[in-house]
Every structure is written in C-alpha cells, then in structure tokens.
Amino acid sequence: MPAMVRMLLGLLVSLLANAIGLVVAASLLDDMELTASGFLVAVVLFTVVYAIAQPFLTQMAMTNVPALRGGVALIATLVALVITTLVTDGLSISGATTWVLASLIVWLVSLVGALLLPLVLVKNAVEERRD
After folding, report:
1. What pTM was computed for the model?
2. pLDDT tens digit string along 98-117?
3. Which residues of 9-20 are buried (b: 16+ CB within 10 A; e: fewer)?
4. Residue-wise over 91-116: b if at least 16 C-beta within 10 A, else e?
5. Taking the CB of the first residue and of the last residue of the chain, which one, N or C, has fewer CB atoms within 10 A?
C-alpha cells in the first residue's frame, strides 16, 4: 500500500475515532456539550491539535521527565480539548471533574476506536473484493 494511501487512511481513522470519543464523552457527561452545528469543526480541530501536541509532548517527556511518557496521549487529549473549546463554539466543557472525565473518556474511546476501526475497514474492503 502506497505511503500516501496509508497516511490518508490513518487520518480517516483518527477523525472517526476522535469523533466517536467526543460523542461518547458528550453523551455521558452533563457538563460537556458538543453541538450538531459545530461537530465537524470541533472534530477536525481536535484531531489537528492532538496530532501536533502529541509528538511535541512526547519529545518534552523523553527529554525532561521520562516517567511521563505513558501519560503523554492523555495530556495531549486534554490540551486538544482545551484548545478546541477555546477556538470553536461546537464544544463546551465546564467543571474540573468534567474536564478530567472528558479527557479520560475521549482518550480511551479514541484509543479503542483507533485499534478497532482499521480492522473493520480492512474486513469490509476484503468482503467487497470477494463479491
């Protein structure tokens, strides 16, 4: 598979996984709102911020505090949520507990989605080729 196709599929999986993570968190948490009108912008912005923040934070952790490497994705999720809520009207979060839970839920659901979505996409592609 060409590198460009792999990159585009990776981007698609990230967008879908993050969208699912945001929707699940917003549906579970009363103090988190994801509006229908701002959904797409919030998902794209969240994904872009996360993609930029995660490698930057990983490098900082490796250089300064190696013990934090495992928590970098969770911190990047929090940073992406903060920036997304500041820049767009599509996502709002209030309360310290909601911020912590939203970060955990979005991170966990996005992680599971990023692991499972490629399997589903490959399975569907294989089934379509068989038909």
Report:
1. 0.85
2. 999 999 999 999 999 999 99
3. eeeebbbbbbbb
4. bbbeeeebbebbbebbbebbeebbee
5. C
DSSP 66-104: GGGGGGHHHHHHHHHHHHHHHH-SSEEE-SHHHHHHHHH
Place of tokens 């996360």: 50
| Ramachandran angles phi, psi of 32, nearest 5° | -125, 125
Q: State how far the Cα of 63 lies from the Cα of 40, in Å rounded to an integer.
A: 35
What is the full DSSP assignment across 11-51?
A: HHHHHHHHHHHHHHHHHH-TTEEE-TTTHHHHHHHHHHHHH
